[in-house]
Design brief:
With about 325 residues, the chain is an alpha+beta fold. It folds into three domains: about 1-115, no CATH class; about 125-175; about 185-330, Histidine kinase-like ATPase, C-terminal domain (Heat Shock Protein 90, 2-Layer Sandwich), CATH 3.30.565.10. The chain is built from six helices and seven strands, in the order αααβαββαββαββ. A five-stranded mixed β-sheet has the order 2-4-5-7-6, with helices on one face. The chain has a two-stranded antiparallel ribbon with strand order 1-3. Strand 4 (about 245-255) and strand 5 form a beta hairpin. The longest helix is centred in the N-terminal third of the chain and has 83 residues, at about 60-140. It is elongated, with a radius of gyration of 37 Å. About 15% of the residues are buried.
Length: about 325
């Protein structure tokens, strides 16, 4: 589909290019030949009037033949020159048009592939909880005697699946609506934001050790998105850390950037899977499927990208998994 679209777009580009080139060449040809014809006519008149001194003036019919020969020769030369120029424009311009057409369609093709892949992944992810809900409800309907506790258990299970679907839908909406142009941008105190979010998750300061600078650190961004970013990383560290182990969070300034670093102890992420953890619906292994939607880190990366920053992850077997966010600091 996209190959044929590239060919059609290339054809249109070439058609427009050659139309302009031929129109320009026709204009040059008409103007130049008319100028040559006028110059030859003027030359003939001047020669006839002055008589060329002692030189014998040729007969008028000789001048007419001479003028016609010169005019025909110049006309032919101009025609061939313009023809060669147009052939060069056609070959070189055609190649350039094809490159431009491919570049123009490349972004559309990538967007189409991403949309198709995203739709397929979303459908797959939603199919599992829906299938589980359907199976449980069918079993409940077929059961002749169903106790109140069994009904409650089924309803609680269905409610859990509904919560997963709601969380997934909400995250998908966040991803689809993220647009820096439409965000409310203002100065954000990262010191205050980080401390408040971590306190919500660890009110007694038992799990998360936070290292904050003495002075406030500011960035320029959207407060809701930055809150979501910190929340995702803290929640992710809590979900995938070994029980009762410490989680370390650090906020600091490095050069022109503000760094937020959070690390946890737990099952490490293999090196070959680290580059994929920020993709939508990607999970490292099946054991982590029940703990999230697979969209959190994708949303985190999207937020960081919109704010002109960078997010990286590293994981060492038997040690710690570290997420580092770098955001441009607001200039004073």
């Amino acid at each position: 589909m996209f190959r044929s679209a590239v060919i059609r777009l290339t054809s249109w580009y070439i058609l427009i290019l050659m139309s302009i080139s031929l129109l320009f060449s026709l204009t040059i040809y008409n103007v130049t030949t008319a100028e040559i014809r006028d110059r030859l006519s003027d030359l003939q008149v001047k020669l006839e009037q002055r008589g060329l001194g002692s030189v014998v003036i040729p007969k008028p019919n000789f001048f007419t033949s001479f003028e016609q020969d010169q005019y025909s020769s110049a006309e032919r030369s101009i025609f061939l020159t313009l023809l060669y120029v147009n052939l060069i424009i056609l070959s070189g311009g055609g190649a350039l048009c094809h490159i431009l057409a491919r570049r123009s369609m490349a972004s559309i093709e990538r967007a189409h592939e991403a949309q198709s892949r995203f739709t397929s992944d979303a459908s797959h992810e939603m199919r599992t909880p829906l299938a589980a809900m359907k199976a449980e409800l069918e079993v409940a309907l077929r059961a002749k005697k169903l106790t109140m506790s069994e009904m409650r258990e089924i309803l609680e299970s269905n409610l859990e699946e509904v919560d997963k679907l709601a969380s997934m839908s909400q995250t998908l909406l966040h991803l689809s609506r993220l647009d820096y142009v439409n965000l409310d941008i203002k100065r954000i105190d990262m010191h205050k934001t980080t401390a408040e979010i971590i306190q919500k998750y660890d009110k007694n300061a038992n799990r998360i050790h936070i290292d904050l600078p003495q002075s406030p650190l500011y960035i320029q961004g959207n407060q809701a998105s930055i809150d979501e970013l910190i929340t995702i990383l803290v929640d992710n560290a809590l979900k995938y850390s070994t029980e009762r182990t410490k989680i370390n969070a650090t906020l600091m300034k490095k050069g022109k950037n503000i760094l937020f670093v959070i690390s946890n102890e737990g099952k490490n992420i293999p090196a070959d899977k680290l580059p994929h953890i920020f993709k939508r619906f990607y999970r490292v292994d099946a054991s982590r499927n029940t703990q999230g939607t697979g969209l959190g880190l994708a949303l985190a990366k999207e937020i960081v990208n919109l704010h002109g920053g960078n997010i990286t992850a590293s994981s060492t077997p038997g040690k710690r998994t570290i997420f580092t966010v770098s955001l441009p600091a607001k200039k004073k």
